[in-house]
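Re: the request from the purification team.
They wanted to know what the chain is likely to look like in 3D before they choose a buffer screen. I agreed to run a prediction and write the result into the notebook, where they can find it.
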Amino acid sequence: MSSLYERHRAVAPDWLALYYKNPIELTHGEGRHVWDADGNRYLDFFGGILTTMTAHALPEVTKAVAEQAGRIIHSSTLYLNRPMVELAERVAALSGIPDARVFFTTSGTEANDTALLLATAYRRSNQILAMRNSYHGRSFSTVGITGNRSWSPTGLSPLQTLYVHGGVRTRGPYAQYTDERFIDACVADLEDLLGHTRDVAALIAEPIQGVGGFTSPPDGLYAAFRRVLDRHGILWIADEVQTGWGRTGEHFWGWQAHGQAGPPDILTFAKGIGNGMSIGGVVARAEIMNCLDANSISTFGGSPVTMAAGLANLAYLLEHDLQGNARRVGGLLIERLRAAAAGIDAVREVRGRGLMIGLELTRPGTDRADPDAAAAVLEATRANGLLIGKGGGHDTSALRIAPPLSLTVAEAEEGAAILEQALRSLPSAGE
């Protein structure tokens, strides 16, 4: 056990999770690779939990950060802030929300917390609809709407939360249906649920569930939900913390796969926009964003340095069509992984889109989760120079693959080969 690990255990909470039996210290990165304190080089297929969106040590971003830090690091929102206004203008234009206003935070958790504040104040209701298997953050309010027991340490909440079917396509009571019948059944469930409630403030949903194992409904589900919600005046919050900025390849935002009934009322974002800098935020129609009747500021949200990073990172993403790269290279990677998983009993499903790919593992001959297999694959891929993530919800266990969006075809092939070797090394792989 390393001395740093011992020091970590002496001062950090027991519930602060670490990957690997012998946790590693990452010291530097470049492109799609990182190095640990022992000099080992890894191909990074997790990007600090979907956060290193473009590349490690991207020169355009590091230069923007250094130059801004040399001018002024901090001022708060009590003063005009040019980088914040410029990034807000670009995010508002990209959001698809008409007459949009943007508020910056320091994390996705805080962004979702703000969205809940806006929705409940606007609707004068503390009732929230959320999806089963969802994850929205670790604050008191966002834990209270998280539909994933593994990440919900308390049942106490300032909100009354009701959970809706639909976030997981291949499990649950509607799994055997066609996509059309699946959507119809989920809409019927929503209609029935609303018949038992008082006024509801909002539905919050991840277009693709992140921590839950990269699960998603058929395209169009949230559009069908939206038509029901609109009849009741209920807001739709799209949690784009993990799906935003083109990661899914086919769309810039995850909600666009469900956009037939229009954009969400509120959109939250974080992670990738900062490429590692602490940026989160909320986009909402002006009437919703401006509904608060008390003063508010943000000390650290929208700081000059993080905004400079976000501007440079977003410009690089758009100028180099990284969304298109996610579609092309991600499509190749998911097909390569499906081919690799064929015949391996431990792999129940390979799913996802773009560079947001999940492999669900189960115990051979059953539909039950196999967390030991997931841990074993994590260890085996690390030993062979690849970093991946894991997740899952109710009785599920999934590997999570989300490299920087600049991933090359050669790197995708390299990572897929390492992952295939790890999967075939499982005792349950079958030969």
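For the purification team: The chain is about 35% helix and 15% strand.
Please add any questions underneath this entry.
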